[in-house]
Amino acid sequence: MKKRLFIAAMLICGAFCFAGPNVFLKEKKADLYSSYKWYGYSVAKIAYGTELVVLEENGSWLHVKMRGKDVEGWINVSKVTERKISTSSSADAREIALAGKGFSEEVENLYSRSGKGDFDAVDQVERSSADFGEIRSFIAEGCLKGGSK
């Protein structure tokens, strides 16, 4: 009986002691992918500030689990930060994500006045999305790296 309790205690301790570091999504929104490639299938959509537990690393990709949920997937390190992100603000997710990158309304206005920024085009790109089935077909038909032809 004591042996079983000891083994159970070790397993529980191991789960907490050896869990990876936490990271937080620093983008407005992102996908968790089924594999460590950009053309993997999306397994979940996550929002700015989502806390993720790192399970494993593979190059510039992290295998993560959403904190408090039974959802795992891969995300590129460029999308996350180790700094805890506070989402309690009157600003919306877009404004918070831009501010985290050093971009504010004042900077956007300065770029607009200088003629250096076409924000209508940027806004249009941000609104667009691609179906993962279409992306995978494009990769395969074009014989791109990772395609199956």
Would you give an account of this structure?
This protein has 149 residues and is α+β, with helices and mostly antiparallel strands. It has five helices and seven strands, in the order αβββββββαααα. The chain has a five-stranded antiparallel sheet, with no helix packed on it. The chain has a two-stranded antiparallel ribbon with strand order 2-3. A hairpin with a 2-residue loop joins β4 and β5. It is flat.
Describe the structure concisely for a colleague.
The chain has helices spanning 2-17, 93-100, 105-114, 119-127, 132-141, and strands spanning 22-25, 29-33, 42-47, 51-58, 61-66, 72-76, 80-81. With 149 residues, the protein is an alpha+beta fold.
User: Cα distance, first to last residue?
Assistant: 57 Å
Q: What percentage of residues falls in helices of 4 or more residues?
A: 25-40%
**Radius of gyration, in angstroms, nearest whole number:** 20 Å
Strand content: 15-25%
Shape: flat
Element order: H for helix, E for strand: HEEEEEEEHHHH
How many helices does DSSP assign? Answer: 5
Q: Residue ranges: pLDDT <50 for 5 or more in a row?
A: 10-18
- Please summarize the sheet with the most strands: 5 strands, antiparallel
Number of strands: 7
What is the oligomeric state here? single chain
Strand order of the main beta sheet, please?
6-5-4-1-7
Mean pLDDT: 78
**Which class best fits the helix and strand makeup?**
alpha+beta
